[in-house]
Design brief:
heterodimer, A: about 170 residues, mainly alpha, two-stranded antiparallel ribbon, 7 helices, about 75% helix, elongated, B: about 80 residues, about 85% helix, about 0% strand
Amino acid sequence: MGHASTSNLSFNLGMAVLVFFYVHGSSIAKSPKGYLAHYPGALPSAKELGLGLGSYFLIGFMAILFIVIHVMEALIQPMSLSLRLFGNVLGKDVLLGVFGGLLQIPIGDTAIAIPLHIPFLFLGLLLGAVQALIFSLLSAVYITLWEPHEHHHEEHHHDEQGHGHSASHAHA
Amino acid sequence: MEAGAALGLALPIGLGLAAFGAGLGIGNAVSGAMEAMGRQPEAIGKIQTAMLIGAAFIEALAIYALVLAFVLMGKIQ
């Protein structure tokens, strides 16, 4: 069986944890307040809901829900990043191993295996390139997603409460 | 049926089901992207990047099943 270094989960987990720390570290370094504001997300104001005291309970409930969801999202991102790479590369390695030992010609005590896996080596080359692209692309996407002033929150701010945050959000 | 034997039956079936779902999902995503590329050839780069990200997310679901299959493979008797 071929052994790529990324078919070991520890290697991928190390890279993903590095990305995790970079994503959150760079976001906190840019604006700690904006980073914390990301967790509850863009909540509606009590006036908008117009339910009296009930709207405050609803907003509190929504805030707790969104914070839980965002914490889970933050923890799942490095796991999915590492497991994706690990599964892809390990799957390729197992495929190579299975095809390498599929046809064997017995000669006396030993056997000669026919290298049926050679076409899959090129497939593996393609897969490795695509996985490297996807890992770096997703890391970049996570970094931009966790930036203090997020894009899809931006639009809400402009529509609903643009007057309050116009100074800080104008640049995007 | 013994637990090990049941696992030996269920693991390939589950993996096949995961591959089936992921195949449907990626097929949908790529067909939409192809259509968009044909309609707007000047936006091919952007569409391709978005398609790759989406395909990676869908593919991860099948990969989870694959990883689980590798983990549970030792328990088949």
